Amino acid sequence: xxxxxxxxxxxxxxxxxxxxxxxxxxxxxxxxxxxxxxxxxxxxxxxxxxxxxxxxxxxxxxxxxxxxxxxxxxxxxxxxxxxxxxxxxxxxxxxxxxxxxxxxxxxxxxxxxxxxxxxxxxxxxxxxxxxxxxxxxxxxxxxxxxxxxxxxxxxxxxxxxxxxxxxxxxxxxxxxxxxxxxxxxxxxxxxxxxxxxxxxxxxxxxxxxxxxxxxxxxxxxxxxxxxxxxxxxxxxxxxxxxxxxxxxxxxxxxxxxxxxxxxxxxxxxxxxxxxxxxxxxxxxxxxxxxxxxxxxxxxxxxxxxxxxxxxxxxxxxxxxxxxxxxxxxxxxxxxxxxxxxxxxxxxxxxxxxxxxxxxxxxxxxxxxxxxxxxxxxxxxxxxxxxxxxxxxxxxxxxxxxxxxxxxxxxxxxxxxxxxxxxxxxxxxxxxxxxxxxxxxxxxxxxxxxxxxxxxxxxxxxxxxxxxxxxxxxxxxxxxxxxxxxxxxxxxxxxxxxxxxxxxxxxxxxxxxxxxxxxxxxxxxxxxxxxxxxxxxxxxxxxxxxxxxxxxxxxxxxxxxxxxxxxxxxxxxxxxxxxxxxxxxxxxxxxxxxxxxxxxxxxxxxxxxxxxxxxxxxxxxxxxxxxxxxxxxxxxxxxxxxx
Length: 642
Known about the structure:
Layout: H1 11-18, H2 21-54, H3 59-106, H4 121-161, H5 171-207, H6 210-218, H7 222-276, H8 280-302, H9 304-321, E1 360-367, E2 417-424, E3 429-434, H10 440-447, E4 455-460, E5 463-464, H11 470-476, E6 477-480, H12 491-496, H13 504-513, H14 517-522, H15 540-552, E7 558-562, H16 570-583, E8 588-592, H17 596-600, E9 604-609, E10 612-617, H18 619-623, H19 629-635
Parallel strand pairs: 3-8, 3-9, 6-7, 7-8
Antiparallel strand pairs: 1-2, 1-4, 4-5, 9-10
C-alpha cells in the first residue's frame, strides 16, 4: 500500500477527477462565497450597533443594514447548498467512472488472479471502498476549502481592527496539541477494534456455514467457538467505550480552549473600550468572529478521520486501477478477415490446393506459472497465496519469490508445459491423461485461450491464438470445465449467453440432445425457469449438460473439455457422449480425462508426464506397452472405473 502522504499515490484516480475539474471548481467557488458571506454580516452588525449608540444611524438606515445582513445570510445558506449539490454531482460522476474502471480492470486480470481473490473482497472493493473515496470530494475537500477561507478572512479582519487581538488565538494551538494527543489514543483503539472485527468476521464466516458447522460439530467445538465469539464481542464493546471516552475528552478539551478564548476576548474588549476608545460594535464583532472561528477550526479537525478513511479507500481503489491487466489483444489483433491463415472451410479446400487446417496445432508450447506477486492485488488477494479453483492448478504457494514445481520441467525448472507439440484434426477426439500435476489442466487453459503461453505456437483452425482478441477466441473455442459456472438466471438466459440470437427451437433441440429435455419440460416455467445462484436447482450432472449445450450453440472449431461427464451416471454419460459427437461434429475435441470409459472411445490418447507428452495413440495400443505411462495409470487405478 502506498503512503497517503505521497502526492502521486493515485495517478489513475487523479486523472478521473481531472476530467470533472470544472464542476469541482464551481463547487469550491460556491463554498468560498458561502463561507465568507456570514463574516460580512458581522461587519454590518457592528455598523448598526455603533450607529445606534452614537446616534448616527436612523431607523430607515438601520433597517437597510439589517436587510443587508439578512441578504448575506441567505447568500451564505444558498451558496453552501449550491456547493454541496455541485460537489455531490461531480463526485457522483467520478465515483461512477472509478467503479466502472475498476470493474473493467478486475474482469481483464490474468486468469490466475482469480485464484487469489478473497470471498466477498471484490464486492467490498467495488462498493465500500469506492463509496468511502466519495467522502473525500463531498465532505473533506469542501470543508477544508470553506474552513480555511473563513479562518483566513476572520484573522485578517480581527488583525485589521486591532493586531493585539490575534494574540488571543495562541490558545488554539495549545488546545489542538492536547486534542491530537487524545486522537493518538483513539487511533490506537480503532486499530485494535479493526483487528477484533476482523477476527469476529472470520469466526462468523467460518462457522456460520455448512462446512464450518459440520467441522465444529464433528469435533465437539461448537461451544468453544461460541465462547470465543462472545469473548471477542465483549472486547469490541470495551474498545468502543474507550473510543467514545477518548473522543468525548478531545471534544471537551477543544470546547474548553474556546471558552477561554472567548472570555479573554471579552476582557480584552472591555479594556479596549474603557482605555483605548474602541467602539462597542468592534468588541461585539471580535467576540462573534472568535466564536465563528470555532466552527471552521472544529470542522477542520473533524475532517481528519474522514480524510484518513478516504485516503485509505483511494489507495485501495488505485491498487486495482494500477494492477497489470491481461495482455490487451484487441489492439494487436488483425482486423476481421485479414488473418493470414484462412479457416479450414474457406476457399482452397474445394480446388485441392490446400488441405483444411487442423482444429488445433501447437509447436514447442511452453508455460511456467508466474509468482503470485505478478498478478495479485494488495489487500484484495488472499495473503499473497493462490486459492484452489477446480480447473486451475494451485500455484505460488511459496510466496512472492518462488513457486511450486507444478510441471516438473527440465532440471526441476518448474515448467508446467515443456515443449508440447500436438495436432488435433477436425472431427478428431483426443483425450489427455496423466497423473496429478502432469500439466493437463494447464494445457487445457492455454489451448482454450484463457492463459497465454510463454513461448511456442498455438493455432486454432489455422489462426494464431496470440493474434486473436477475446471475441475472436470465443468464436473459435468452447471451454467446458469440470464444474461449470451457471448464472443466477433462467435456462434461456444461460443458454443464450453463448448465442444471444438463438431461437427457442434451437434451445429446446440442444437440450434434448444433452438429455436436458425432460428437466426443462418438468420445470414450472420451462426455459424461463430461474435455476438459482450457481445453479443450485440443478445437480452437478445437469450443470455439466447445460454447459455442453451452451457450448454447442456456438458451433466452435475447437472444444476443450475438462472431464465433461464426471458427474453423470453411466446411462446418461453414454447418451451425452453420443450427443456430443453430433453437437461438435466437425470440431476438434480435446478432453482432460480421468475415467477409462471416457478415454476408451477417444480417437487418440495423449499421455502427459511432467509437462511433456510421453505417449500418443489409441487405448489398446498404449495399454499394451508394459512400461509406458498409460499402463502405469491403468495399473494404479488412476483412470477410475469403466
